[in-house]
Specification:
The protein has 134 residues and is an alpha+beta fold. The protein has a single domain, classed as PRC-barrel domain (SH3 type barrels, Roll). The chain is 14% helix and 28% strand. A hairpin with a 5-residue loop joins β1 and β2. It is globular.
Length: 134
C-alpha cells in the first residue's frame, strides 16, 4: 500500500518471507487509490473509520468525482467491500463508476452519523457488504 511514504517506523518492510503486511497502520491506507475490477479509478481514500468499541475498521471514506478539489463527493464504503491489491499498491472496490456516483454520499462539511444503525444497514446493503454492524 502506501507504506513507503507513511511507514516512518519501518515496520512494513517487505521480504520474500512477507510479501505483504498482515497488520498495517491505518495511516498507510489514507491517500491510496481505489479501482474497480474494470481497472477504472474510483478515487482515493480520505479517512479510515474505526469502531473503537469493537476494535475493527468499519468504513473507508472514499473521495470520488473531484477535479482539482472541486465537486468532491465522499462515500463511506464498508471495509469488507474493499480488498487490498498489494501488487498494484491500491484497494479494489467491486462497483461500477455509475453505481458509485449514485451511491449515498456526503460532502466534507456534512458527515453522516456513521454509528446510526439504520444508516449503516443502508450503506451495507448498497455495497452488498454482508457483515452485520453492531
Amino acid at each position: 500500500m502506501n507504506n513507503e511514504t507513511s511507514d516512518t517506523l519501518g515496520m512494513f518492510k517487505e521480504s520474500q518471507d512477507n510479501p505483504g503486511a498482515r497488520l498495517i497502520g491505518t495511516g498507510t491506507l489514507v491517500g491510496n487509490d481505489v479501482y474497480n475490477l474494470k481497472e477504472e479509478s474510483l478515487g482515493t481514500i480520505k479517512e479510515i473509520m474505526v469502531d473503537v468499541a469493537h476494535g475493527k475498521i468499519s468504513y473507508a471514506v472514499l473521495s470520488f468525482g473531484s477535479f482539482l478539489g472541486m465537486g468532491e463527493k465522499l462515500f463511506a464504503v464498508p471495509w469488507n467491500a474493499l480488498t487490498l491489491d498489494n501488487a498494484n499498491n491500491r484497494l479494489v472496490l467491486n462497483v461500477d463508476k455509475a453505481r458509485l456516483s449514485d451511491a449515498p454520499g456526503f460532502d466534507k462539511k456534512h458527515w453522516p452519523d456513521m454509528a446510526d444503525k439504520t444508516w449503516a444497514k443502508q450503506i451495507d446493503s448498497y455495497y452488498a457488504a454482508d457483515e452485520p454492524r453492531v
